Amino acid sequence: MPVPTLRRGALAALLISATLALSGCGYNEFQRLDEQVKASWAEVLSQYQRRADLIPNIVNTVKGEANFEQETLTKVVEARAKATSIQVTPELANDPAALKKFQAVQGELSGALSRLLMVTENYPNLKANQGFQDLRVQLEGTENRITVARNRYIKSVTDYNVLARSFPSNLTAMVFSYQVKPSFEVENEAAIKTAPTVSFDKPASK
């Protein structure tokens, strides 16, 4: 048998062995879970953007209500501006400090919107405004979708990180630089969405 033929056979055997070794050590699973994390993150960003796009219409509608609490409205506008000022890049999700900042401003916006919706309950004209009620339904639906998307992202990151930390797939992670990914921290979510007690007592007319 010619030498080149032997070499080709040995090379083919080596490639097959390497493929099986990579598969056995979780390489293909890393590829799958990494893409799943990216897709889940994209959905989270999409839902946050959907919420940001709804806010201007909500603010403009509320502005038309006489004597509406301007401080409440201002906080929503400021929180939206802060949330949309963060430059979202693919690297953001892999940077613990940047992800924490992103989550903080989104949580601040959630709190401001929650307080806004609570305050609108005291304005009969807004409650009777079908356009505003439609926007409110859209916002509440978006908040629910944000929660679902974020939970899916957390699950995707958890699955990925378990693989990255487990033996022997952790060896594959080291070789191919599959780093453990940061995730959302949602233990304070209830506190973020709980509106503070607000007094709507109006001063007596002079």
**What proportion of the residues form beta strands (DSSP E)?**
under 5%
Number of strands: 0
Sequence stretches where pLDDT stays below 50 over 5 or more residues: 11-23, 187-206
> From N to C, what is the helix and strand string?
HHHHHHHH
Helix/strand/pairing category: mainly alpha
Helical percent range?
Answer: over 70%
Q: Mean pLDDT, as a whole number?
A: 82
Q: How many independent structural domains?
A: 1
- Shape summary: elongated
Biggest pleated-sheet summary = none
Count of separate DSSP helical elements: 8
The termini sit apart by 110 Å
What features would you describe in this structure?
The protein is 75% helix and 0% strand. Helix 2 (27-63) packs antiparallel against helix 3 (70-85). The termini are far apart. Residues 11-23 and 187-206 have low confidence and may be disordered. The longest helix is centred in the N-terminal third of the chain and has 37 residues, at 27-63. The protein has one domain (27-193). The protein is mostly helical.
Q: Layout of helices and strands, plus pairs?
A:
Elements: H1 3-24, H2 27-63, H3 70-85, H4 96-120, H5 124-128, H6 130-165, H7 169-176, H8 189-193
Overview in brief:
With 206 residues, the protein is mostly helical. The chain has one domain (27-193). 75% of the residues lie in helices and 0% in strands.
Q: Which features does this protein show?
A:
206 residues; mainly alpha; 8 helices; elongated
